[in-house]
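Deliverable D2.4 — example input (structure tokens):
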């Protein structure tokens, strides 16, 4: 009996303790890996949100110089004619195109922005969309006539002096789009007298449909 106990303490117990330590280390590594993954996702999200902080401040009625000052310096200008200024930027995580329409005028009357996230990171699109939505709402709060949010769509109707501005935000799979346009003709008055504004297309853009 004594010999058996000595054998157990000498040979079996160290093996048992070693196995327990290995299991603890494996569990610890798994937990750390998950924590590191979460931290990495949070870091990526914060960098993504920070990159697109400028979107909420995009304007109608800017000059070409004002447009180029507002767009990040690392964006490439790839269209520059009498009707459009368009910029493009691409990295591993996302690709973005932002365009401003001038139509031979000195100030832009519309803009559009398209963001395409890497499909492996498309779950971050919800948080990015919410951030941009908040930025737009705060920026236009003073002139806001009404706003609506429905699932993947948000819309703002804005009256600023003689301007009537529509801003539309939509998300679809790993894409986010922001479109804005203005008109001296009151779309709110048009809705009552001549027709209504409706959403069309995959991006949910707004168009005015006259009454028959």
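Example output (designed residues):
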């Amino acid at each position: 009996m004594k010999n058996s106990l000595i054998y157990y303490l000498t040979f079996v117990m160290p093996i048992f303790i070693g196995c327990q330590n290995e299991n603890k280390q494996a569990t610890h590594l798994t937990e750390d890996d998950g924590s590191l993954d979460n931290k990495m996702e949070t870091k990526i999200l914060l960098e993504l949100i920070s990159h697109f902080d400028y979107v909420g401040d995009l304007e109608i009625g800017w000059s070409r110089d004002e447009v180029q000052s507002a767009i990040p310096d690392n964006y490439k200008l790839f269209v520059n004619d009498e009707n459009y200024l368009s910029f493009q930027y691409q990295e591993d995580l996302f690709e973005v195109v932002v365009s401003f329409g001038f139509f031979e005028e000195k100030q832009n009357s519309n803009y559009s922005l398209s963001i395409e996230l890497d499909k492996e990171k498309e779950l971050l699109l919800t948080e990015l969309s919410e951030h941009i939505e908040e930025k737009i709402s705060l920026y236009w709060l003073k002139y806001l006539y009404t706003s609506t949010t429905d699932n993947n769509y948000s819309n703002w109707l804005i009256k600023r002096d003689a301007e009537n501005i529509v801003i539309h935000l939509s998300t679809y799979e790993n894409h986010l789009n922001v479109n804005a346009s203005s008109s001296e003709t009151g779309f709110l008055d048009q809705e009552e007298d001549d027709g209504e504004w409706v959403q069309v297309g995959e991006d949910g853009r707004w168009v005015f449909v006259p009454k028959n």
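Strands lie at 76-80, 84-90, 94-101, 110-117, 144-150, 153-160, 163-172, 175-183, 195-200, 205-210.
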